[in-house]
């Protein structure tokens, strides 16, 4: 056990009475995420998750990367455990961090002592270890105010741990503590970011994609499944529901006034998504809508599309600029896939002059020739359900 990970809990620490439940969820999530990388022991003590490789077969680097994507963790570090005495701590630092220290111009030691039985205060530990390190590394200056490198010593219940600077974690709340929601996932930039943002709040994600074969190709479907796979790096495995949307779109084209095409289509999407959501225990829908971005994203348009559902519609991007959305898209690794040029079903049958200030009355009138409920039932019955996990092969 030469190296383990320590991960600090984020907002969970503030959760009072629910803290135990949150911690249990996080521990389960970490255990599941570590499984593809070998045998790891995972436990939580003193608001810290310990991830301990159990044998030499474990893929420690793979596990380390995966740990950066686990919600509920604010920061994480790789560290070396050692006995709780000054000689052992000093030797562990020399072995484990000595080279990093030599590369810096200046350093300090910062200590934390959560084992209050340990006979020295944190300040005394830092001074003693700092003094020894300064002697061993005469070319690296001690600078307690603005050091280039900080050596951390944590004296905890089971052992002492030494490490360099921690890295930022994924933040948010552990997946599963906030229920489940159904994301309407298109092949664009926005909806995968929307799914990620709600997942970050502890919500398990399921997705639905409306697929208009042959107007949109198999490649467009693979692109959506690949985007879902990218989101699972953070959200954990998910189900993607593929709804055949072609017949509905053709019926709209043949029976409704053109200026309402997009709005009618979006009302179908919402209602079908809600049916699937309720069947699977999802308490909300998620979309990548963004105020003013396109004709169907005005307040009036959102009113008529939202009117067909009675569960909340989360639109985490509603007030963001495109640049901000793109930054997150890049950060989660979705952007390069999102910009691949395959068409989306929204671009089939797009009206030349879409209605931007519709009313519910107008929509009901425009849809009057359609047997909406029968069309919705059929779409729900013929849905294709695909399980997506991050460790699946990339789809494109
Ligand atoms: P995105 O970048 O997510 O495609 P967009 O800016 O292109 O969004 P729209 O095409 O108006 O905006 O779609 C708004 C939202 O509707 C999308 O973010 C997504 O949640 C949902 N949506 C659109 N098309 C589909 C589809 N084919 N399947 C599932 N959801 C869709
Ligand atoms: Mg789109």
The count of strands amounts to 15
The topology string of helices and strands comes to EHEEHEHEHEEEEEHEHEHHEHEHHHHE
Biggest sheet layout:
9 strands, mixed
Determine the oligomeric state from the structure.
single chain
| Tally of alpha and pi helices | 13
The helical percent reads 25-40%
Termini gap = 39 Å
Low-confidence stretches: none
Write down the overall mean pLDDT: 94
As a whole number of angstroms, the C-alpha radius of gyration is: 26 Å
β content, as a range? 15-25%
Q: Structural class per helix/strand content?
A: alpha/beta
* Heterogens: adenosine-5'-triphosphate, magnesium ion
**Rough shape?**
elongated
Tell me about this structure.
This protein is α/β, with parallel strands linked by helices. Helices cover 39% and strands 21% of the residues. The protein is built from 13 helices and 15 strands. The radius of gyration is 26 Å and the shape is elongated. The two termini are 39 Å apart. 42% of the residues are buried. Magnesium ion (MG) is lined by residues 186, 188, 344, 346.
């Amino acid at each position: 056990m030469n190296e383990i990970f320590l991960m600090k809990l984020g907002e969970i620490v503030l959760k009072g009475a629910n803290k135990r439940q949150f911690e249990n969820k996080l521990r389960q999530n970490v255990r599941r995420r570590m499984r593809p990388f070998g045998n790891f022991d995972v436990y939580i003590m003193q608001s810290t998750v310990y991830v301990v490789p159990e044998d030499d077969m474990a893929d420690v680097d793979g596990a380390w990367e995966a740990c950066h994507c686990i919600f509920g963790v604010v920061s994480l570090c790789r560290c070396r455990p050692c006995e709780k005495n000054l000689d052992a701590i000093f030797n562990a630092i020399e072995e484990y961090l000595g080279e990093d220290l030599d590369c810096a111009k200046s350093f300090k030691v910062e200590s934390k002592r959560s084992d209050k039985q340990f006979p020295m205060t944190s300040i005394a530990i830092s001074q003693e270890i700092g003094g020894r390190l300064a002697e061993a590394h005469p070319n690296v200056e001690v600078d307690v105010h603005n050091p280039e490198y900080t050596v951390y010593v944590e004296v905890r219940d089971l052992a002492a741990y030494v490490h360099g600077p921690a890295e930022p974690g994924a933040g948010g709340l552990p997946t599963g503590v906030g229920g489940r929601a159904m994301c309407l996932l298109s092949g664009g930039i926005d909806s995968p970011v929307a799914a990620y943002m709600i997942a970050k709040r502890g919500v398990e994600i399921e997705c639905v994609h409306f697929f208009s074969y042959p107007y949109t190709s198999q490649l467009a479907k693979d692109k959506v499944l690949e985007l879902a796979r990218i989101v699972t790096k953070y959200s954990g495995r998910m189900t993607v529901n593929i709804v055949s949307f072609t017949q509905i779109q053709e019926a709209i084209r043949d029976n409704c006034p053109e200026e309402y095409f997009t709005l009618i289509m979006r009302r179908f999407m919402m209602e079908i998504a809600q049916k699937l959501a309720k069947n699977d225990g999802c308490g909300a829908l998620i979309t990548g809508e963004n105020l003013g971005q396109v004709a169907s994203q005005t307040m009036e348009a959102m009113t008529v599309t939202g009117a067909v559902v009675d569960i909340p519609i989360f639109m985490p991007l509603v007030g963001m600029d495109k640049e901000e959305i793109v930054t997150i898209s890049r950060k989660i690794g979705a952007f390069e896939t999102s910009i691949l040029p395959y068409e989306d079903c929204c671009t089939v049958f797009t009206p030349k002059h879409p209605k931007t200030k519709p009313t519910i009355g107008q929509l009901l009138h425009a849809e009057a020739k359609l047997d909406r409920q029968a069309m919705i039932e059929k779409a729900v019955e013929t849905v294709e359900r695909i399980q997506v996990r991050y460790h699946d092969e990339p789809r494109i």
